[in-house]
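Human: Note token order:
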Amino acid sequence: MDGVHVLVVHNRYASAQPSGENKVVDQEVALLRGAGHRVEVFERRSDDIAARSLPGKAAVPLLVPWNPAVRAELAARLRTSRPDVVHVHNVFPLLSPAVLAACADAGVPAVATLHNYTQVCPPGTLQRDGRPCTECVGSTPLPAVRHGCYRGSRLATVPLAVSLSVNRRRWWSGVTRFFCISAAQRDVLVRAGMPAERLAVKHNFVPEPGVRREGEGEHLLYLGRLAEAKGVRLLMAAWDEIAASGGVGVPLVIAGTGPLEGEVTAWAAGRDDVRYVGLYDTDQCREAIARSVAVLAPSTWLEAFGLVVVEAMAAGVPVVAAGHGAFVELVEDGVTGLLHRPGESASLVSCIRRIANGPARNREMGQAARRHYEQGFSPAVGLERLVEEYRTAIAGRTESMGGSK
């Protein structure tokens, strides 16, 4: 079977904080190239904003809804390279939905991975003040502006809200196939009015980690962004309760960075039962996971996927995760890990104690987690599903062009 020629479009998130999206994009590109497919990349980097002049920085919010220079540059690139399909990931803040107009200009079909909920919620989290929020879903994004949902700022939220409003139809008409990274995410988007026939579920895959757990593990691990939506404050409260009753025999390791870094650093200081280790690189992440009794994912927002959960499964490590969003389909409660009641400290405490104090059951769950990874989230499975979706999009565009002649 002939290879597919793909142009990947992505605005890379700032490198100062861990980004699951950047990781997914890089892994998919490597997977496709390794299988003999031709992959080019068209990208912008949020890191580059810092080097702009003051007027250049001030202009960035104006480019969020529409960047005409990107449209022209990408259209020219597409006419020259003639890929079979364009795969769009993140377009905020420097690319904008103008990339879809460029695809239409060049007559190349576009597919898009929806890594979060920015199609229906300006900040993409479906959360406000630490609680689930769907006020803008199926409606206008004015509530998000009123509440300052992006970075706590009304002004910063405006460009996102404007982009969502003016580009909604462009997204829905300009993308041949949307890839939802979980069925839970797809359900939310269908209820919000997105075209169900264009929404396919394509879970992210995770590469073989190269290291798996041996023995029972030596710590519990939180690995991710230090943010309210990730359940970091909930975890700290639960761990304080566990510590007050004597602990569970192993320390808690927290790896990552984010807006709550100062708070986490102060909380962990001087404690024997907590270690804050900062931002780990890829190899350090894999080693830390493989040495875990369990990986903790107590997110208070409705995660669209949860990469760290699958990374744990790949290493044969069970997880304790919040029982909502994509976690419900990733984790089989009591089989590959444990699900706690979302936002409830007592439930999280109970699950941590159960998973840390039953080594035989923990080992069984880790083995079941590894089998689940092999069946649904391995590179072989990921490649097959990705190429299948590309071919569906290419065939759909060919048929529609044939029908319009």
